[in-house]
Input
Amino acid sequence: MLGIAPIERDPASILNRLSHVEMYLSSIEKMPIRRRCEWLSVRLLIREILGEEKEILYRENGKPYIADGSYNISISHTKGYVAVILNPQKRVAIDIETISPRVKNVMHRFMSNEELENTPLTGEIVYWLLHWSAKESVFKYIDESGVDFREHIYIAPFKPLQGEWGIFHAQETKTAIRETFAINYYIADDFVLTAIG
Output
């Protein structure tokens, strides 16, 4: 189960639509407004997906988990949006990124020379962002420290499809498993999203 929602700008308005307000107040009281809105929007999105609220806790490394163990969860946010993926059995990972030309300044840090050589003649910003997003999703999924996105995660060549769900493949070489992943992706007008699970 996967959901994407705009981040609302009024924390009080979001709280009015949540049932367990007392459970959230102590967590959000010291957060800046922007972070508070992201945090509450995630809880509201989970309620919309599942039809009920779930308490989310965080491990020492910052990875979220559902307190009652009913679902595996991954959360992501970017300018204006939150995204959540849940699965009762399988591990999951998700990442959402705002489409921005700033990726051009950092692509050499996370893409191998081979990946860069496969860049299409048009739509390169989205192509590079999908690489970044997919590598973030793989990183979240394998949950290992010391992952070098250039060295340890490889994205196979693909042609991005605008406005519909697509799949491309990634492989990680950081763990002994050296797992291959089918990366589900979506390209909207202002964001890209990748998910595993």
Summary: Helices lie at 11-15, 21-28, 33-50, 107-110, 113-117, 124-142, 149-152.
